[in-house]
Amino acid sequence: MDRISDGRREATEIRLRAYPPDILREEDFELHRAPVPRSLEAGELLLANSWLSLDASARLRMRESDSPYMPRITLGGPISGFALGRVLSSRRSGFAEGDLVLHSSGWRTHAVIRADETGWRGPHRIVEEPGMSEAAYLTALGPAGLTAYVGMVKLLDPRPGDVIFVSAAGGGIGSLAVQLAKIAGARVVASAGSAEKRDLVLGLGADVALDRRVPDLSAALRTAAPGGIHGYFDCVGGPELEAAIDNARPGARIVMCGTVSNYDTQSGSLPRNLFAIVAKELSVKGYLTRSYAELLPTVQAEMAKLVRDGRLRDRVTILKGIDSVPRAFVSLFRGEHVGKLLIQL
Ligand SMILES: NC(=O)c1ccc[n+]([C@@H]2O[C@H](COP(=O)([O-])OP(=O)(O)OC[C@H]3O[C@@H](n4cnc5c(N)ncnc54)[C@H](OP(=O)(O)O)[C@@H]3O)[C@@H](O)[C@H]2O)c1
Hints:
Elements: E1 2-3, E2 10-16, E3 29-35, E4 39-40, E5 45-53, E6 83-90, E7 100-103, E8 110-113, E9 124-125, H1 143-156, E10 163-166, H2 172-183, E11 187-192, H3 195-203, E12 208-211, H4 217-224, E13 229-234, H5 238-247, E14 248-256, H6 275-279, E15 283-286, H7 296-308, E16 316-320, H8 325-332, E17 340-344
Parallel strand pairs: 10-11, 10-13, 11-12, 13-14, 14-15, 16-17
Antiparallel strand pairs: 1-4, 2-3, 5-6, 5-8, 5-17, 6-7, 7-9
Domain Enoyl reductase (ER): 25-343
Keywords: Oxidoreductase
GO molecular function, one term: oxidoreductase activity, acting on the CH-CH group of donors, NAD or NADP as acceptor
């Protein structure tokens, strides 16, 4: 074992007290403080986290039973999630003190990455692109960027003139997906739950921004796209998916990235028009970003170029300090933040 000497004495991590049966509350979390680890085994890394990404899908793992997506979060242990950290000490080849690392031991100030942790969830040493902010490696140049790129560019693959509908368009992934669809030459109809987010997506190039809270979203989409939509990038499920199916042109493509409308409550509505998928011969494709992990370096370079050329903008809401995590995560399901929700430590 190597001894580590650094000035920090205390690490803080967020734990889940119990599996919330329905709507998540701040009180469902607790802060746990412990000494910063002082030694590492062979193959391990000690990181001081600088940025945490709060991702809606973590809610799916705060349930009694394992989700098909990932195992449930262990009570009394730290919560996992994407983060960026600097190496304080390394016993893993390819990582040196001071390196910036993307990994999945977030929701804590310090992380020990075990020797057996590899693959999509990291650790990945970041080769920093000139002119990019550190936080961009969690957004456009990170997991959110890869998710938007795979869903919009690789799977939905809009053609010039196509009408593409994007839901949760004021969120981290949706706001990138809107811009990628515009870059491909599509006409974009976006939906979001607040005036601030609708202004944001119009500013990012969307042609129409719908209020997802209107009583008849399907009618609103019909007015915005009278000839129907060629494609739908779904982050929400529920009413947005139903409206998309209603308004899909024959043979349209639906790419399902997430169904955030039922992560917190599990009682979100299901589309009532599923037969239209058959009748209109729609194709519906779900995907997991981790299945496309090998594309990360290519997408990073491509997104960096788009950012540098002024063709792609990252929108983030930044809250500071580990103590802000519980409130911030709960607010995510009330749609209170704009863009990707990040915590700066
Ligand atoms: N397939 C994959 O591998 C993969 C990977 C990462 C993320 N995802 C999925 O991508 C989606 C977006 O993630 P993100 O990181 O971009 O999230 P985000 O930045 O936190 O944005 C989430 C958005 O969801 C909307 N929202 C929240 N509760 C809602 C509800 N009940 N009904 C409708 N909209 C609601 C909010 O906008 P409003 O103002 O409209 O409420 C918010 O802007 C999620 O479904 C996530 O699970 C999938």
